[in-house]
UniProtKB/TrEMBL annotation:
<dbReference type="GO" id="GO:0018423">
    <property type="term" value="F:protein C-terminal leucine carboxyl O-methyltransferase activity"/>
</dbReference>
<comment type="function">
    <text>Methylates the carboxyl group of the C-terminal leucine residue of protein phosphatase 2A catalytic subunits to form alpha-leucine ester residues.</text>
</comment>
<feature type="binding site">
    <location>
        <position position="177"/>
    </location>
    <ligand>
        <name>S-adenosyl-L-methionine</name>
    </ligand>
</feature>
<protein>
    <recommendedName>
        <fullName>Leucine carboxyl methyltransferase 1</fullName>
        <ecNumber>2.1.1.233</ecNumber>
    </recommendedName>
</protein>
<keyword id="KW-0489">Methyltransferase</keyword>
<dbReference type="InterPro" id="IPR029063">
    <property type="entry name" value="SAM-dependent_MTases_sf"/>
</dbReference>
<keyword id="KW-0808">Transferase</keyword>
<comment type="similarity">
    <text>Belongs to the methyltransferase superfamily. LCMT family.</text>
</comment>
<feature type="binding site">
    <location>
        <position position="79"/>
    </location>
    <ligand>
        <name>S-adenosyl-L-methionine</name>
    </ligand>
</feature>
<dbReference type="GO" id="GO:0032259">
    <property type="term" value="P:methylation"/>
</dbReference>
<feature type="binding site">
    <location>
        <begin position="150"/>
        <end position="151"/>
    </location>
    <ligand>
        <name>S-adenosyl-L-methionine</name>
    </ligand>
</feature>
<dbReference type="Pfam" id="PF04072">
    <property type="entry name" value="LCM"/>
</dbReference>
<dbReference type="InterPro" id="IPR016651">
    <property type="entry name" value="LCMT1"/>
</dbReference>
<dbReference type="InterPro" id="IPR007213">
    <property type="entry name" value="Ppm1/Ppm2/Tcmp"/>
</dbReference>
<feature type="binding site">
    <location>
        <position position="54"/>
    </location>
    <ligand>
        <name>S-adenosyl-L-methionine</name>
    </ligand>
</feature>
<dbReference type="GO" id="GO:0009966">
    <property type="term" value="P:regulation of signal transduction"/>
</dbReference>
<dbReference type="GO" id="GO:0005829">
    <property type="term" value="C:cytosol"/>
</dbReference>
């Protein structure tokens, strides 16, 4: 399917934008440059500020989840692309019992290739016991797994997580960073329903588009369509309410969320002031528009009250 190639290519875009912003010192990440080449083009400051908000918010939620569970937890990154959080968390001595990254085989194969090439990526995965199994497109180690899977196929996802020895009784955080919008709503609903029914304690953090029914949203859809990239799941991205409702309608206990303009104002303001000095930006309204069209929404299921309902970005 041609459009799946375009969807896979969105990972190159994301990794590229992240590397660009890291080189400008919006945030620090020594690993992204090992996974993606330097971008030859200049990126607008509002793009880097948007990525800053997305990356900083996701890092904050990941750290809070690991701390709440004392590390007795699992993290599953759906459509992980070239995400580097596994290595960044290790650097601050935070880790989960299992960290699973899932993506299409072409993407995971590229990630395997880069990981094999860089000792600092490989060594952290292998750990002290050196236990690591590598294939062309998958990695299995003590607390790290990289697996290929088409997320539109729930049975495949279940089988892959089983291969990673994921335990249904351990608190589990699922993250999807700019991924669900590429998958039809019914397939996403199946995943959400299965998690809510099967895992005792779960948190799901979803970052993606919101407020997509207005003019700005429609232009975004058209631009992507012209690159053969279809937002098959965009119907769930109409509003913050529709984003939250996809959790509560699939059996989750509760859901909350913010658009990225709200998130931007909740981030540690001293650091926000620092990054705002990196590049001059005269298009303040464009940044505001961009931030209003992305969101962080999270759903929880927490029958033992470990504190997931109280998690937020403040
Ligand atoms: C925009 S990229 C985001 C990558 C990463 N989450 C990040 O934020 O840097 C979207 C990712 O979702 C993956 N993806 C989209 N649909 C998928 C599907 N049906 N099955 C597996 N992966 C999928 C793509 O291959 C791509 O790596």
């Amino acid at each position: 399917m041609a459009s799946d190639d375009a969807v896979r290519a969105t990972n190159d875009d994301a990794a590229n934008c992240k590397r660009y912003a890291v080189e400008k010192k919006y945030w620090s990440d020594p690993y992204i440059a090992m996974l993606t080449p330097r971008s030859s083009s200049k990126h607008a400051p509002e793009i880097s500020r948007g990525y800053y908000a997305r990356v900083t918010a996701m890092r904050s939620m990941l750290q809070k989840f690991i701390k709440i569970t004392g590390g007795e937890c699992q993290i599953v990154n759906l459509g992980a692309g070239f995400d580097t959080n596994y290595w960044l968390l290790k650097d601050i001595e935070l880790s989960a019992k299992a960290f699973v990254e899932v993506d299409f085989p072409t993407v995971t194969a590229k990630k395997v290739f880069h990981i094999k090439k860089h000792a600092s990526l490989l060594e952290k995965i292998a750990g002290e016991d050196g236990d690591i199994q590598l294939s062309k497109s998958e990695i299995h180690a003590t607390d790290y797994h990289l697996v290929e899977c088409n997320l539109r196929n729930l049975n495949e996802l279940k089988a892959k997580l089983h291969d990673c020895h994921i335990e249904l009784a351990l608190p589990t955080l699922f993250i999807a960073e700019c991924v669900l919008v590429y998958i039809d709503v019914s397939s996403v609903n199946e995943i959400l329903k299965w998690i809510a029914e099967s895992f005792t304690t779960a948190l799901f953090i979803n970052y993606e588009q919101v407020n997509m029914t207005d003019r700005f949203g429609q232009v975004m859809i058209e631009n992507l369509k012209s690159r053969d990239c279809y937002l098959s799941g965009v119907d769930a991205c109409a509003s913050l309410d529709s984003q939250k409702e996809r959790f509560t309608s699939q059996g989750w206990e509760g859901a909350d969320g913010m658009d990225m303009a709200m998130v931007y104002n909740c981030l540690p303001q001293a650091d926000v002031h620092r990054i705002e000095k990196i590049e001059f930006m005269d298009e303040k309204e464009l940044l505001e528009q961009l931030l209003k069209h992305y969101c962080f929404v999270w759903g929880w299921k927490d029958p033992n009250n470990i504190g997931l309902a109280a998690l937020d970005l403040t």
